[in-house]
Amino acid sequence: MALADDIAEKKRALDAARPLPLNIVGRLADWFELETTVACAVVEGDRLSRREVMLLFAKGEPVLRNRPIDDQRMILNHRRALELMARLSFQPGGAVTERTIQAFHSLLFTGIGRMAGRYRDGPLKDVSAGASPDPAKVRVSMSALSGWLRRAEPSPDTAFEAHHRMMAVRPFDDGNATVALLLGNLILNRAGYPPVVVRETDRDAYFDTMQRAWSVGDKTPFRDVMMGLLNQSLDVCLVGAAGSLAGREEEPEPVSRP
């Protein structure tokens, strides 16, 4: 409960600082764009460095000779998916549904295979993180998730529950974790929170607790990990709100870590 109280207090402090100056908003938006895209590489196992992601952003096309073309395309496509997330974040009247989820996947995998935006019709390619959910039940499960999303109010608990429910189904051949993060971060944004960022040092805890959530039904450790990541993101925003990002090129250091 202490962490939840800490997050609530930081959210109140951030709300009190709003509206933030446009230059600070821009710096924070740029930082989260970069870090959430690096997180995409982390959860997909692509291992692209922050510097490589920055180079791809600068060039706008695959230019890394020592990295697979599709990995680079996903990084560039993730930027487009973030643009969709930003637009939807400012449309609180529009429902978040399975069409939203499919739209994220379609953007993420544009130019990468034939399954962009399409549910899988067979077992998962990589089942190292747990048993492959029955493909025959994917559409029914996603329809149920869609109905739940329509009824749920935006909040951190809704965001992390939506992430868990989608990953319990894993409806796509590839990219499920990235799409689940986009979904959860969209809900967080709509609730007035910043997105969460999964760093390389968070990867094992993220996947281990997520697997525990869907395999034995214990969602508390996963929620604790995600709340810790949200706490860090709020720290970054509060540093930005204080004007401490001015002139800094490196990652803003969170005030505290979970």
Q: Which spans have pLDDT < 50 for at least 5 consecutive residues? A: 244-251, 253-258
Radius of gyration computed on alpha carbons: 18 Å
Structural class: mainly alpha
Biggest beta sheet summary = none
Shape: globular
| SSE string, helices as H and strands as E | HHHHHHHHHH
| End-to-end gap | 13 Å
Write down how many β-strands occur, each being a DSSP E stretch of 2 or more residues: 0
Mean pLDDT, all residues: 90
Task: Please tally the helical runs, counting DSSP H or I stretches of 4 or more residues.
Answer: 10
DSSP strand content: under 5%
Assign a percent range to the helix content. 55-70%
Pfam family, one: Fic
Domain Fido: 96-228
Protein name: Fic family protein
Overview of the structural elements:
The protein is an all-alpha fold and 258 residues long. The longest helix is centred in the first third of the chain and has 22 residues. The relative contact order is 0.15.
Topology (elements, then pairings):
Elements: H1 2-17, H2 22-43, H3 50-59, H4 69-89, H5 98-108, H6 138-151, H7 156-169, H8 176-190, H9 203-216, H10 220-241
Helix pairs in contact: 1-10, 2-4, 2-10, 4-5, 4-8, 5-8, 6-7, 7-8, 7-9, 7-10, 9-10
Notable traits:
62% helix; mainly alpha; 258 residues
Report a brief summary of the structure.
This protein is mainly α.
